[in-house]
Amino acid sequence: MANLFTADDSTGPRYLDLTNGGTDVFYDVLTLAGCVIAQTPWQRNLVLRFADGHRLGRGCDGFDLAELPWTGDWPAEKAFLDQLIALALTRHGWDRLNYDPPYAIQYLTRFREMLAGYTPVPEPTPKWGDWRLPPAAALTAECDTHSLYVGEYGCRLCDEYIQPPP
Ligand SMILES: [Zn+2]
Question: Residues 55, 90: contact at Cβ < 8 Å?
């Protein structure tokens, strides 16, 4: 099983194909970077998507960059996602992982190249909802141990179903 992340309209690379294990790692490192810098409602909704990523629907949780609820403020939104990936590339928070992610830099580098070549198009009725509205406070509460959003399914680094045994 695998998950396909795409950017069909990118002038850069157009896809990132990850195994289920690779997908968990990808969302772990994005969440570690995102929770520390997200401020606006849109930014917090994006990071929540990563925090809850691949918890249900194993093997079918890839998405296309066009599916993100881009708004008229997309230049700032794209810049934030780029900043988030850049922070993840510095291995931010990886000391909180109980495993070594040997391929994560490769995943993040390619995802960043996909984003760089992509020009977002605002979507009036995004299927993921209106990210200009703040997420419920309970969802962005942080785990005491890992300082990550608990989201719908609890802190992902505390989730024994997706983390290797300590
Ligand atoms: Zn935790």
Answer: no
